[in-house]
Specification:
The chain is of the alpha/beta class and 365 residues long. The protein has 14 helices and 12 strands.
């Protein structure tokens, strides 16, 4: 599934450096001037999951195919972006196409790297971006409300429901709260998502700190953590410079480098996992001699829809899913052992797939 997470932030906070490290490329130019990134760079990365390697080893799989997530390096926003300042309209359009936002905040002091506001204040920087997204939403909401008026007079129930959602979003924004703060019922979620409001997208704050603070963070990242906690959001501390160095090393070299820096794992692994969690995603596996593969689904996905991730025919002709929990697959040393131990289950259309399930789908062609 093509989940896309946009990397945003003010100019010169380390977005492109972080993107380079994430994708292990140098495709995103990193330079010390605003609007260095104009066209968004897109890169796909593997979602780290040691379970997949263990499953492949047991099944003696010839290939290992991890789950993937796309990251979009979106150019630096500035005040007035919602009114087209800088390259605002283009940037906002790029954000709209993403499922979630990783907001990179400058949490390092460096006189050699220009800050567009002339100071280091990550909470204030976050406010600038959030304000521009909310202002853009407000403009969009007002236009939509005007277009819905005629349909509502005609008794269009769908228009009435959409109008209600828009008014709730408008009320939140006018009270300085992003659209994601609006409580939406489960049966309203599909219609809500179709509004594509920028400030409704889930946000993960990434604190870009100096190399020496990569393990413990600093006063700036602590301030961001407090801010995130009040919003019900999450934050991750990373040194983009270190991560870019690590991305150029071989596995053994990177492990030694991390140990020297006092880091248990690469910050990018934590970031990717956090992004996965941010989007409320889970993984199920298909395992056999040809390949062991991880598949991405939203939490709460039913078995037929999970099958549809592989191919639409699997969902349309779904009969049942032969299911083994990850822990049982490992404990029983594979599918045959799980089957003999009675740990393989036949699940129907109402089954909610669980994270780590090893599945085999039966379907009609």
């Amino acid at each position: 599934m093509g989940f896309k997470t946009g990397i945003v932030g003010l100019p010169n906070v380390g977005k492109s450096t972080l993107f380079n490290a994430l994708t292990r490329t140098a495709s995103a130019q990193a330079a010390n001037f605003p609007f260095c990134t104009i066209e968004p760079n897109i890169g796909e990365v593997s979602v780290p999951d040691p379970r997949l390697d263990r499953l492949a080893k047991i099944a003696n799989s010839a290939k290992i195919i991890p789950a993937r997530m796309a990251f979009v390096d979106i150019a630096g926003l500035v005040k007035g972006a919602s009114k087209g300042e800088g390259l605002g309209n283009q940037f906002l359009a790029n954000i709209r196409e993403c499922d979630a936002i990783i907001h990179v905040l400058r949490c390092f002091e460096d006189d050699d790297i220009t800050h567009v506001e002339g100071r280091v204040d990550p909470a204030s920087d976050a406010g600038v971006i959030e304000t521009e997204l909310m202002l853009a939403d407000l403009e969009s909401i007002d236009k939509r409300l005007g277009n819905l008026a005629r349909k509502i007079k005609g008794g269009d129930k769908e228009a009435v429901a959409q109008n209600d959602l828009l008014l709730r979003a408008k009320d939140a924004i006018e009270n300085d709260r992003p659209a994601r703060s609006v409580e939406v019922a489960e049966d309203e979620q599909k219609a809500w998502n179709m509004l594509q409001l920028l400030s409704a997208k889930p946000v993960l704050y990434v604190c870009n700190v100096e190399e020496e603070n990569a393990a413990s963070g600093n006063k700036h990242s602590e301030a961001v953590a407090k801010m995130a906690a009040t919003e019900g959001a999450a934050s991750v501390v990373i040194s983009a410079a270190i991560e870019e160095e690590i991305s150029q090393l071989q596995d053994e070299e990177s492990a030694m480098f991390l140990e020297e820096m006092g880091l248990k794992e690469a910050g990018l692994d934590r970031l990717i996992k956090a992004g996965y969690g941010l989007l409320q995603l889970e993984t199920y596996f298909t395992v056999g001699p040809k390949e062991a593969r991880a598949w991405t689904i939203h939490k709460g996905t039913l078995a037929p829809q999970a099958a549809g991730v592989i191919h639409g025919d699997f969902e349309r002709g779904f009969i049942r899913a032969e299911t083994i929990a990850y822990a049982d697959f490992i404990a029983c040393n594979g599918e045959q052992g799980a089957r003999e131990a009675g740990k393989m289950r036949a699940e129907g259309k109402a089954y909610v797939v669980q994270d780590g399930d090893v599945l085999h789908f039966l379907f009609n062609t």
